[in-house]
Design brief:
By secondary structure, this protein is mostly helical. It has seven helices and no strands. The termini are close together.
Length: 167
């Protein structure tokens, strides 16, 4: 079990370290558009769409990495005052009530949503008209990756709640 959980963590860490570099492409696109628009008076029609898509990849594909490193927004007013074992019980309840149902619905609805987009080769309504289907595919892919990482963390919380063991 420990080997599988460690492999999931390594995979999430690996993908996070790769996709975090998209922020450089995003920054370069924004800086290029600012220079072209403000200093050369030559705005582009493609920059906004491409920036939006690169941001979507960056944001979505780093969500499991943020989960691994506990970087998501949380309200810790009461949580920090609990013992590690009680935190584990609260985390288990949160995963069962909110996390897993949300991801199941996201996968359940995201797959046909992306498939429909692929079937019609959906594009943006802008004059640049880039394809949208591969960006919409990120929805179920990200949900699956979050489910994988969240499942690993859930199992660790169960072990901590039952045995009092962290690793």
């Amino acid at each position: 079990m420990d080997g599988i959980l460690a492999a999931i963590d390594r995979f999430t860490e690996w993908t996070g370290r790769i996709f975090c570099w998209l922020v450089l492409a995003l920054t370069a696109l924004v800086v290029l558009e600012v220079i072209l628009r403000r200093f050369l008076n030559s705005p582009t029609t493609w920059s906004f769409e491409v920036t939006k898509q690169v941001f979507a990849f960056h944001f979505m594909l780093l969500a499991p990495y943020a989960l691994l490193h506990k970087s998501h927004v949380a309200v810790d007013i009461f949580y920090v005052k609990l013992s590690p074992r009680r935190r584990a019980f609260l985390d288990i309840a949160s995963y069962l009530l909110f996390f897993f149902p949300f991801l199941i619905v996201l996968i359940w609805q995201g797959i046909p949503y992306a498939a429909n987009s692929w079937s019609m080769r959906e594009t943006s309504f802008s004059s640049f008209s880039p394809p949208l289907y591969y960006v919409k595919t990120l929805i179920p892919v990200t949900a699956f990756l979050l489910l994988l990482q969240g499942g690993a963390m859930f199992l660790r919380h169960i072990r901590l709640a039952i045995r009092g063991e962290n690793q």
